[in-house]
UniProtKB/TrEMBL annotation:
Family: Belongs to the glycosyltransferase 2 family. GalNAc-T subfamily.
Keywords: Disulfide bond, Glycosyltransferase, Golgi apparatus, Lectin, Manganese, Membrane, Signal-anchor, Transferase, Transmembrane, Transmembrane helix
Stretches assigned to the Ricin B lectin domain: 455-579
Needed cofactors: Mn(2+)
Name of the protein described by the UniProt record: polypeptide N-acetylgalactosaminyltransferase
Higher taxonomy: Eukaryota, Metazoa, Chordata, Craniata, Vertebrata
Catalytic EC class: transferase
EC number: 2.4.1.41
Locations listed in the record: Golgi apparatus membrane
Residues of the full protein shown: 440 to 1023 of 1023
Amino acid sequence: EGKGVIVFKNDKHIKKNDLAQVLLEDKHKSSQQDGALNPGKLPAGEPVKLLNASVVRRSAGLHKVMALDVTVRPRDVRAIGQFGHAAVVPLDRQEESRRRWSEGYFNVFLSEQIPVDRAIPDTRPPACSENLVHDHLPTTSVIFCFVDEVWSTLLRSVHSVLNRSPPHLLKEVLLVDDSSTKDYLKEKLDVYMSQFPKVRIIRLKERQGLIRARLAGAAEAKGDVLTFLDSHVECNVGWLEPLLERLYNDRRKVVCPVIDVISDKDMSYVLVDSFQRGIFKWPLVFGWSTLPEDYVKKKHMKDSDPIRCPVMAGGLFSIDKKYFYELGAYDPGLDVWGGENMEISFKIWMCGGEIEIIPCSRVGHIFRGENPYQFPKDRQKTVERNLARVAEVWLDEYKEVFYGYGYLHLLDKNVIDVGNLTAQIQLREKLKCKSFKWYLDNVYPELEAPEVKAEGLVFNVGTRKCLALNNGSLSFEICDLSKQSQHFNYSWVRTVRQNAFCVAPLGTGTGMTMEQCDNTKPHLRWLHKANKVLPEHLIAEVSPRGMFQRVCLEGGPKADSVYLKACDTSSPFQKWQFTHYYAQ
Ligand code: LR7
Ligand code: MN
């Protein structure tokens, strides 16, 4: 008929025209195979429409995931990149393909050659097509935020949603244009998308960054659930229902598809290993990690079972819209890109929710080496500032671990201004969220997160005596573990402290004093690179009369005194060791 066909893989098929009445029956008969279908010939370049299909539900019940895929039998089987295969640049176009790489930091040339609605391999674990879902699932608004996205990948992203989402569950597709500069994303995009009634374009007058762009999209969304996607993805067969099913059963679950890989070089669609979960390492660096084999065995996990994630990657997830707002959405003070995945992950877990990857839901994403758009301010400074906001609001005493791993400079008040955090801190109180320690103990116990770098007695190699704090002044005593006055911490922010007081250098040749600890004061920081085997210096940076100098803490060979002196690598009186050292 020159139109598309909806293929309900396994058991159901419906010929459609533009206003199909899709009748969902309670039980589908497995005898009705899709083998009898003829997808018909479609005019090249014209996407299959699946819109305006109204749904009549005969009764409540359970049905199999509709593996709705008009691309199971694609229009042009000979097109390059079809079926998710690797595409090859012809010899005479290689120069062009190289030249155009930086338009998107992936193979833009090839992306343009492959069909916008190509078929991709069904990468779901086999059990997924047998899983049952409810009829009355919530609807979703799919939100794509983009800035200067490549035309072909933006289109492919939208087509994959339109073609592979059950129409009755897809409320709308919102395209939030974060003030793109490219001409083709203006009128040309409006015209193209006007053929799809479900697609709406929201234009931001000023560049907001992806975080506030998502907030703008969410504010316009009419669906029950918000589904955020990056603008260079391909949703796979049956991707949506398993996500919505999980939320339907528990609205405090926030669910992510498995993120398959679309190669930036040849655009092939590649499935990723099973049992991957989202984690972070210090200082809040996102990564993937395979669940330990014995954990999988102990829990009798199948490759189709949901996987609990300490943090999400950030770009692809579904969340109940009301719940998103109950959680205070994103911190709107986060700028442009980065850190928002940490913020929302900590918020979800610490305030009563859960994050899961649903292996039956698969979405491919082009991973690229660089951002193809400009950052309004310096990229690194933007990300650092976002992370510092997250650390200040959510990490409690563990924020020192974050700063200690390479972000000490952020503590300096005049280096960055993290902005006002009052609203975020109040939100955390209002929601009665649990502590970061609770999160570490319960959600992510595998993370090494000692609160301090070292602690215990501070032993001096030359004198074989230990530091002690008596009546507010530092002295030197025979080591005695039972004396609390001899216990110090070497913190992640490099202070040597006992309770609220920190050892402060006075200057070369002079003694030491104790000062109220204040992480923003660089003069309280000591460099100390020892471990449980090797004692090392305690180095302070002082600037008497404006002259910057590195000096070392020395234990007096004669009197029981400690003082600062020019560093001497051979002097045992300048070598110190704490009783315990933790992961560096
Ligand atoms: O200023 C901007 N405005 C935007 O609208 C910057 C970006 N964007 C859009 C952009 O066009 C894209 O669609 O936001 C989306 C994400 O930007 P990417 O694709 O440049 O980000 P990414 O894939 O490199 O980075 C990941 O981390 C980001 C941190 O802020 C976001 O959370 C991304 O959504 C996230 N992507 C994923 O989770 C996909 C899997 C990557 C992994 C691991
Ligand atoms: Mn991306």
